[in-house]
Specification:
Layout (H helix, E strand, L loop, with lengths): L17 H9 L5 E4 L2 E10 L5 E9 L7 E7 L6 E3 L16
Antiparallel strand pairs: 1-2, 2-3, 3-4, 4-5
């Protein structure tokens, strides 16, 4: 008996802005950029257990000296849209996103 009947679908709240799709898909590990006052550095690429293309991204705000956050982003195979994957243990006091 499978644990899930169907893969969990994103409801769109963690979808990255379209402007970042090409950068995330085509830039190498170590690429750094800024979007909406969030500095990001692309990490390694891999395939998840569900077969999705994923990669690490390190985020921090450019306006303060906060610590970098390591987040995972994965590409939806049908829509080709990248989304930030929710962390298993989410820290409500330390959320950085692209303002999407």
């Amino acid at each position: 008996m499978p644990l899930l009947e169907q893969p969990v679908k994103s409801i769109g709240e963690n979808v990255l802005p379209a402007e970042l799709n090409t950068i995330i898909s085509q830039q190498p590990q170590g690429y750094a950029g800024v979007y909406n006052d969030v500095q990001f550095t692309l990490g390694k690429q891999y395939f998840s257990a569900l077969g999705k293309q994923c990669r690490e991204v390190f985020l921090n705000y450019t306006t303060n000296n906060s610590d970098k956050q390591r987040r995972i982003i994965c590409k939806d195979n049908q829509s080709v849209q990248w989304s930030i994957i929710p962390q298993v243990i989410d820290s409500k006091n330390n959320q950085i996103d692209f303002g999407a």
